[in-house]
Structure formats: C-alpha cells, structure tokens
C-alpha cells in the first residue's frame, strides 16, 4: 500500500512538472524555470522547517542541540538520502533485494538479523542492509509491515511475528532485531503479545534507531492512527509500558533527528542507549557507526555472550 501511494506521488509530481514546463516554456522560460525550481526545493524547505522546529523544541526542553553548521550538514545529507529512499527505493524497489534466508543445512547455529522498517515505508527501505549482510553470509530478512497506512501499530505485529519465527526456525537461534523509527514500537508491541519464554526464543536483542518510545513532539500534526499513537503521552504508549525484561534493548538517538525529538523520547528506561550528534532521522538507519555496532553486537550474541 505505501509503495502504491508513493508511486502515485512520484509519478504525479513528474507529470505536474512536465505539464508546467509544457505550458509555461513557450510563454515565459523564466516562469517555467522558477516553478520547476520551487518544486525541486520544496521537500528541502520542509526538511529545513523540521530541523528548525527540532532546535526550538530541544532548546525549550534543555536537550542537547547541535550547532547550526552540524544541523545544516545533516539537512543536506538527509535531503539526498530521502530522495533516494522515498523517491525510488520504497515506491519502486520494495522486492528488488531478496532476503538472505540460510540454505538448508547451512544456517543452523548462527544469529540472523530481522530488519523492521518505520512509518510510511516498506522492506525496500533496508535494501543496503540486506546486500551488506548477505555479502558477509549473515542470515537476514526484512518484512513489509501490513496493513500499512492508517492501521494501528498493533495491527502490524503479525508481519513481524511471522518473519522472526521463520528466522528463528531457519537458524535455530533467536535473531537480532534492528528496527527504525516506528518499527521499534512495532517490535515492543509484538513482544508484549508473547509469553516470556517465547520472547527469549524469538528475539536475542532489539536495537531501535530513532524510535519514539515516549512519543515525539512532531506527531501532534499527524492525522493518521499510527501518528496519534506516536504522540507524546498517548494512551497507546502508556498501555505499551516499558521494554520486556526478557529481551535487552539498545536505543540509538541523534541530536539532529528531525522527526523524533527532543532526544529523551527515543530512549527506554533501564535500557542501553547510544547516541550520535550529526545525523538526521533516516540517516540514523544507514550510518556506518550504527551498522558496525549492530554487526559487533550480533557477533557477541553469536559467541554466546549475554548483552544487556
């Protein structure tokens, strides 16, 4: 569903740009170029507004606030990344990168990785991770959380449950769960529905990247059900409570996160946390420092070390 919506958005924008140029170019090349330029910079302006709001809210909350030069660098990098993710990978490449299920008789004993996307995305979001993990021979899979747009986060749990169970069965060990943004809330909602022994059997550790565990200030502007659930102090979040004791969590946050802010909302009580100061929301999922951490964590789990 999300892919279809974004396909219409991208194709509609391209059609509108061509229609604008076709109408105005013979009449006024300057107007044609100005309109096209405005359309191209509009997403960047929206991202810039989010960055400005993030700094204002962070200042009011007494949270760490990145210097302007750091925020501008993150804004520029995030803009290009979002163009690739939401203009190509999510709408048109959802199934382009297959999962890395272990071959029969060759995957037993290893810790697999299950990747959980965030709001208004699908499994295409994780294509770079899937390629990198498969190149290292690591069992990996990414599901599309269904139903998509408009459904409660609770309704997305079965997609994650099926993927995690298949990975645990294929490898004989609980997988590492890596979840971006809303995906971390889906992981917590999933674990809440499991019995304690099932939690230990289906998740070795959960790493969340920019997840609004305590809601996010920006969600007040959302009109969708998942957006309402991600509002600060929402009824849904209060019912979700904390992380289950049987599964350790590590929560990553960034001082430049333009979606989940101010930073304490991305953490869970009694869970480990890691932070960055120079990447925005989508960047957090693809930062090399984050990926190295997850690979090192998986190796420790592989070697049987308890990671708390």
Task: Please explain how this structure is put together.
The chain has a six-stranded parallel beta sheet with strand order 2-1-3-4-5-6, sandwiched between helices. The chain has two domains: 2-92, no CATH class; 113-302, Alpha/Beta hydrolase fold, catalytic domain (Rossmann fold, 3-Layer(aba) Sandwich). The mean pLDDT is 93. It has ten helices and six strands. Strand 1, helix 4 and strand 2 form a beta-alpha-beta unit. The protein is globular. It is of the alpha/beta class. The protein has helices at residues 2-24, 29-61, 68-92, 127-135, 157-171, 182-193, 196-202, 225-229, 235-240, 288-302, and strands spanning 113-116, 140-142, 176-180, 205-209, 249-254, 272-276.
CATH superfamily of the largest domain: Alpha/Beta hydrolase fold, catalytic domain
Strand fraction: 5-15%
Instruction: Kindly report the spatial arrangement of strands forming the biggest sheet.
Output: 2-1-3-4-5-6
Shape: globular
Largest sheet: 6 strands, parallel
Separation, N- and C-terminal Cα atoms: 37 Å
CATH overall fold name of the largest domain: Rossmann fold
The level 1 CATH classification of the largest domain is Alpha Beta
Structural category is alpha/beta
How many structural domains?
2
Proportion of residues in helical segments: 40-55%
Mean pLDDT: 93
* Tally of helical runs: 10
The sequence of SSEs as H and E is HHHEHEHEHHEHHEEH
Radius of gyration: 20 Å
Low-confidence stretches: none
User: Any idea what the CATH architecture of the largest domain is?
Assistant: 3-Layer(aba) Sandwich
Q: How many beta strands in the DSSP annotation?
A: 6
